[in-house]
Design a protein that fits this description.
With 133 residues, the chain is α+β, with helices and mostly antiparallel strands. The chain is built from 5 helices and 4 strands; from the N terminus they run H-E-H-E-H-E-E-H-H. Helices cover 38% and strands 17% of the residues.
Length: 133
């Protein structure tokens, strides 16, 4: 499991000496120890550098390619777009869009990225300070 997330070189270190990104990868390695049909991850790339993010994206895609389901909760929509085959977009607890990533991206020709689509869908809620009254 440590090899799958790139932590073999740190296997002898005490966990308290790990960086945030290393702790994040250790948590994912732990989740991968026993293969599960469903894996739910909250912000799995938090604290990772760009190279580690790309590696983690590959780990998750390979895990899902074995017929398992990986659910990723994240605010990083560009990362979600690169990693996931399906998406559920929510705003303030409300469902605003869902379906296969390709369908969501092709549905609206005005917006090209998942982030742009999300911002377009929430419309006026984007105004900074709107709720700060």
């Amino acid at each position: 499991a440590l090899a799958r997330v790139g932590l073999t070189q740190a296997a002898g270190k005490k966990v308290h000496a790990y960086s945030l990104g290393m702790k994040q990868r250790l948590g994912i390695a732990n989740a991968l120890l026993q293969p599960r049909d469903l894996l739910v991850l909250d912000e799995p790339t938090n604290g990772l550098d760009p190279q580690q993010i790309a590696e983690m994206r590959d780990v998750l895609k390979r895990y899902a390619a074995t017929g398992r389901t990986v659910i990723v909760s994240s605010h990083l929509l560009a990362e979600v777009q690169q990693t996931c085959s399906h998406v559920v977009l929510m705003h303030r607890g409300e469902l605003i869009a869902f379906g296969p990533m390709k369908k969501i991206l092709n549905r609206n020709r005005k917006s090209e990225t998942l982030e742009e689509i999300f911002l377009e869908l929430i419309g006026d809620d984007l105004v900074i300070g709107k709720d700060a009254k």
